[in-house]
Amino acid sequence: MSILITGGTGYIGSHTCVDFIKKGLDVIILDNLSNSRAEVVDYIEQITGIRPKFYHTDLLDREGTKKVFDENDIESVIHFAGLKAVGESVLKPVEYYRNNIVGTLNLIDEMRAHNCFKIVFSSSATVYGKPKTVPIKEDFPLSTTNPYGTTKLFIERILEDLCVADDRFSVALLRYFNPIGAHESGLIGDDPNGIPNNLMPYITRVAKGVLPHLNVFGNDYETRDGTGVRDYIHVIDLAAGHYSALKCLEEKGVHIYNLGTGRGYSVLEIIEAFERVNNVKIPYIIAPRRAGDIAECYADPSKAAYELGWKAELGLDDMCRSAWKFEQLNTRK
Ligand code: NAD
Ligand code: UD1
C-alpha cells in the first residue's frame, strides 16, 4: 500500500516525503512542477537512500491523475498541491479557484473510483481571517480576505460535505501557521520563484546580497515592539505532523488541527535571531503596513498535542540556521 503525496516536490511536500520514507512508508509523488523542480526527487533520494516514484502530472489532467491511481495501490493521500501566493491570487482569482478547487475535485473523483478514502489536506491559518483574540483555537470563526484563503476554506467545506455524504471517508484538515526552515542537509527548502512574499525567504536573500534590504511592514502594531507577530514552525516539525495525522484517519469523518508552536515572534525578533545565529547582517527599513496583514497570529496547538501526540520540538535558532544553509547551497539564484 502506498501514500500519494500531491505537491510532493514542493517545500512542505518534499520534507514530508523525506519524513515518511525514513519512517518506512512507500511514497508516490504527483506534481506538475509549476512551483518546484524535478531535481527535488534526486535530493529526496540523496537524503533517504530511496527514490520515490514520481509522476510529472497536473491534477487538472483527469487522465494523468487516473493513471497514477490505476498504476498504484494507493491507501491514502496527502494533498499539498495548490497555488499559494496571496497577492497573485488577488490578480488571478479564476486561475486560483480552478487550480486549487478543480484540482481537489478531480483528486477526490479518482480516490472514490479507486476505493481510497483517506486524505490529509493542507489548509492554513489564513482561514481564521482576522481573529478577535490569540491564541487561535480550531473552533474560532472562519473567514477569508483573499482568493487564496477562500480556496482553502472552500476545500475544507467540500471535504466536510463529502464526509457527510459518504461515510467511508476520513479527512484531516491541517491548518498550518508559518512554516520556515529547511532540512539539515541544505538540499531542500523554501525556494519561491521571483521576489519572495514571505518573511524568511526574503531575509535569506537579503543575507545573500540578492536583495538590498528587508522591508519591515509596519512598526505601529499593538505588539511588544510594534512589528507583526507570527507562529513560525520548523518545516521538519510540520512534516512530522502529517505522519501523526495519519493516525486520526483510522476514524471516519473530519478531524481538524492547528499545526503551530503556540508561540509568537515579531519581525524584529526574527531578524535578531537570524543575525545572531548565522553571524550575518540583515539591513532593514521600516516600510508601511502591508494590506491585509494582522498584528498577531499564533496557534493554540493543544488539540494536536492531546489527540495526535504531536508537538513542535525545534526552536527558532534551528529554523534560522537551516534556512540560511539552504539559501547558501541553493545555486538557482
Ligand atoms: P509549494 O508551492 O512549494 O508546493 C506546492 C506544490 O504543488 C508545488 O510543487 C507545485 O508545483 C504543485 N502544484 C500546484 N498546483 C498543482 C497541480 N494542479 N497539480 C499538480 N501539482 C501542483 O508550496 P508549499 O509551501 O509546500 O505548500 C504546500 C501546501 O501547503 C499548499 O497547499 C499551501 O497552500 C499550503 N500552505 C502552505 C503554507 C506555507 O507557508 N508554505 C502555509 C499554509 C498552507
Ligand atoms: C502569509 C500569507 C498567509 C499564509 C502564511 C503562511 C499574506 C498576506 N498572507 O502570512 O495567507 O497562510 O503566509 O504561509 O501573504 N513581513 C515583513 N516583510 C516582508 C515579509 C513579511 O515585514 O518582506 C512581515 C509581515 O508583515 C508579517 C510577518 O513578516 O508580520 C510574516 O509575514 P509572511 O511570512 O508573509 O506570513 P503571513 O503574513 O503570516
CATH topology group of the domain at 2-181 and 233-260 and 299-314: Rossmann fold
Distance from first to last alpha carbon: 39 Å
- Please identify the structural class as seen in this structure: alpha/beta
> Can you identify the CATH class of the domain at 2-181 and 233-260 and 299-314?
Alpha Beta
Helix content: 40-55%
**Taking Cα atoms only, what radius of gyration do you get, to the nearest Å?**
19 Å
In terms of DSSP E residues, the strand content is 15-25%
Instruction: Find the CATH superfamily of the domain at 2-181 and 233-260 and 299-314.
Output: NAD(P)-binding Rossmann-like Domain
**Order of SSEs:** EHEHEHEHHEHEEHEEEHEEHEEHH
The total count of helices amounts to 11
Bound molecules: nicotinamide-adenine-dinucleotide, uridine-diphosphate-N-acetylglucosamine
Low-pLDDT runs = none
Shape: globular
| Named CATH architecture of the domain at 2-181 and 233-260 and 299-314 | 3-Layer(aba) Sandwich
Count all strands and give the number: 14
